[in-house]
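Progress against Task 2.4 (sequence-to-structure conversion) is shown through the following example record, which the project officer requested during the mid-term review.
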Amino acid sequence: QVQLVESGGGLVQAGGSLRLSCVCSISIFNRLARGWYRQTPGKQREMVATITGTGNTNYGDSVKGRFTISRDTDKNTIYLQMNNLKPEDTAVYYCNGVESWGQGTQVTVSS
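Structure tokens generated for the chain above:
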């Protein structure tokens, strides 16, 4: 069974930074598209950033220029570096890959 485990969420002031990590239990994770999504109560889950097996990246319009997705294939891990955080970035962030979802990690940005 595939397991995705996120970490790195927390409470930060507006303008601050956080780095999220997502570790996958199987290495095929590295060869497939993976990504970060976020969700707030009452809203649909939205794409934040994705990275393909060849390293191509894509970002949601609201995070372009502030967030960076990266990977460490030796560790079956992807990261999301979040800079210049805004209160509207507050959400539960989920890692997706190998047709699976992590449990989510809460990010709260105070104004």
